[in-house]
Design brief:
Helix 7 packs parallel to helix 21, helix 9 crosses helix 10 and helix 24 crosses helix 26. Helices cover about 40% and strands about 15% of the residues. The chain has a six-stranded antiparallel sheet with strand order 2-3-1-9-8-10, with helices on one face. Strands 4-5-6-7-11-12 form a six-stranded antiparallel sheet. The longest helix has 20 residues. It folds into three domains: about 220 residues, Aminohydrolase, N-terminal nucleophile (Ntn) domain (Glutamine Phosphoribosylpyrophosphate, subunit 1, domain 1); about 300 residues, HUPs (Rossmann fold, 3-Layer(aba) Sandwich); about 60 residues, no CATH class. By secondary structure, the chain is of the alpha+beta class. It contains 26 helices and 17 strands.
Length: about 600
């Protein structure tokens, strides 16, 4: 986990002090050093916050290739860099890292080297030979990267608040923040600042001021898997066993172990020395700590159990909002924050989690609801999800279009202009007619962004590198290509192929036989209607006093009691805390 920032333009060198300050503003992302450097032609200045993982004695970036003048700022990890270096004939000294590999690969073959990288990254490369700045982001957006144009200059940073400090950027309410709790696409709640889309290469020509963006990888281009289930399971098991261990750090690390299928498989394949789980006293419905304890014993790991309460949430809210940059929806946000805090206190630098299988192998109940219908899902033993299933109730005899069904299931607020419905429909149209693949693409267009970004941002706030082994390129592409019935054959049991792989690995039946998904969900919505009700109302009312008119409906909605699965009050409270944080920043 590192951070990058910078500026490119005809007079960039004159703003070196500004870029240095941009780097310092996100120094928590790289406690091993924040440095900046100007290009040899003075047309770009790059800053980098360095967290040393591969080699604790390495020199912090940015990195310069003296033969070409290329300047690189890099955030992330390239897991296959030594294999690719050998394949491309790039020499690396014993203690050189993936950043050195990347710099030489770019000098040799340019942006085409992105195709060969397997990892998580956001990078900036300035090439004085063509006077161009290149920004690129990994396939699934694990590492964030924001940018803005200003007066013929392009500025970029790992954190959007770094760019708001660079120049004026008024806060704006994106309609999707009310509909699904988060901006979508490349939008941010700051005017003039965009998020670089995943798998995108941005090229900024300093000489002309022109800008170009292109997608360098596309999931939907993968051809369907051809073969029976037995061959698919064998292939999946091999890829799983090959790719997951590549993500094991050379030093000590912690695994977020919820006790569910995804993290338990990682536990057996990665053998972490420390596992961290989160449980809430009195919340048996959310407690999988007994299974987590069994897994930890089986692999000989220390299990750290974090037990936060509503007081911890109230105290942690300002820290979470500050780390996230802006409000975004995620049911496990508080649990993740507390887990990362615990890992940081242990003195570790890398934390591993299980993002991915739910989206690519039909692990969410909403997937089963669309594929099988609500009646089959409820009859399969998931009666607790009746409130979610009720969203698909429609006039008798009326056929509900799959895009309409998905939109209903992901919406958490009004969508008067049908923006989310259109977004879902567009994503699903690219699936080639396979409904399971369509659901994956719809997830990536809506719910994925807050999941992957909260993981990065909350971990970075504690100077941790977050790794997600299931997002290995080969594993993602294979999972997407599989036929729907290989992913889910029973309405109550998604992730079929991963379950069978877990069974073959010898995991306990309680893991691969579980019919419900809990993860790191928290009782925050219940707290906001219980012991924290008065406090939450006060926070929201304070924000209402000064909030712009467009934000008032969102905040006012949070003053009404919500149900067990309703995050409306949580969303309003996050927005209120964000306003308070913005006011503090403005006054500083």
């Amino acid at each position: 986990m590192c951070g990058i920032a910078g500026l490119a333009g005809g007079d960039a060198a004159r703003h070196e002090t500004t870029v240095g300050a941009m780097g310092v503003s996100q120094a928590h992302r790289g406690p091993d050093g924040t440095m900046h450097a100007a290009s040899i032609d003075g047309q770009a200045v790059l800053a980098m916050n360095t967290l040393l993982i591969v080699d604790p004695l390495a020199r912090p970036g940015p990195y310069l290739d003296r033969s070409t003048g290329l300047l690189l700022a890099f955030n992330g990890e390239i897991y296959n860099f030594r294999q690719q270096a050998a394949a491309w004939g790039i020499e690396l000294a014993a203690r050189e890292s993936d950043a050195h590999f990347l710099l030489r690969a770019w000098a040799r073959i340019g942006p085409s080297c992105l195709d060969g990288l397997d990892g998580m990254f956001a990078l900036a490369v300035y090439d004085p030979r063509v006077r161009r700045l290149f920004l690129a982001r990994d396939r699934l957006g694990e590492k964030p990267l924001y940018w803005r144009l200003d007066g013929g200059r392009l500025a970029f940073a790992s954190e959007v608040t770094t760019l708001t400090g660079y120049g004026s950027a008024p806060a704006v309410l994106r309609p999707e923040m009310v509909s699904i709790e988060t901006p979508t696409g490349v939008d941010t709640p700051f005017e003039g600042i965009q998020l670089l889309a995943p798998a995108t290469l941005l090229t900024f020509d300093v000489s002309t001021g022109s800008l170009d963006q292109r997608t360098w990888w596309s999931l939907e281009d993968r051809l369907p898997f051809e073969g029976d289930y037995k061959s698919a399971l064998a292939r999946y098991s091999v890829v799983l066993a090959e790719q997951v261990p590549l993500r094991v750090p050379s030093d000590d690390f912690a695994l977020l172990l919820s006790g569910g299928l995804d993290s338990s498989v990682l536990a057996y394949l990665m053998r972490p020395p420390v596992c961290v789980t989160v449980r809430y006293l009195g919340q048996d419905r959310l407690d999988e700590s007994k299974i987590a304890a069994k897994i930890a014993r089986d692999i000989g790991a220390e299990l750290v159990v974090v037990e936060p309460d509503h007081v911890d949430f109230a105290e942690a809210l300002p820290q979470m909002v500050s780390a996230l940059d802006y409000p975004m929806g995620n049911a496990s946000t508080f649990s993740e924050h507390m887990a990362y805090r615990s890992v940081s206190c242990l003195g570790l630098r890398v934390v591993v989690g299980g993002l991915g299988p739910d989206e690519f192998l039909m692990g969410y109940v909403r997937h089963a609801l669309v594929l099988f219908g609500p009646e089959a899902v409820l009859a399969g033993g998931l009666e607790a999800y009746r409130p979610l299933a009720a969203k698909l109730v429609h006039v008798a005899g009326e056929t509900l279009d799959p895009a309409d069904a998905v939109a209903r299931l992901v919406l958490r607020g009004p969508d008067p202009e049908g923006r989310i419905r259109s977004l879902v429909a567009d994503a699903m149209s690219r699936s080639g007619g396979d409904l399971a693949r369509a659901l994956t693409l719809a997830d990536l267009a809506t719910a994925w962004r807050p999941l992957v970004m909260t993981s990065d941002k909350l971990a970075a706030a504690h100077a941790l590198e977050r790794r997600s082994p299931y997002l290995a390129r080969d594993l993602v592409e294979l999972s997407y290509r599989l036929p729907a019935e290989y992913k889910i054959s029973d309405p109550a049991e998604g992730k079929r192929i991963l379950r069978d792989a877990a069974k073959a690995l010898g995991l306990p039946r309680e893991v691969w036989g579980s019919r419900d998904k809990l993860g790191f969900a928290s009782p925050v919505p219940a707290w906001l209607n219980g012991p924290l009700a008065g406090w939450a109302d006060a926070q929201i009312r304070t924000a209402l006093a000064d909030a712009p008119s467009v934000w008032r409906p969102l905040l006012e909605g949070g003053l009404k009691p919500g149900g067990r699965f309703d995050r409306t009050r949580t969303q309003a409270l996050m927005a209120a805390a964000w306003f308070a944080h913005q006011a503090v920043r403005a006054a500083a």
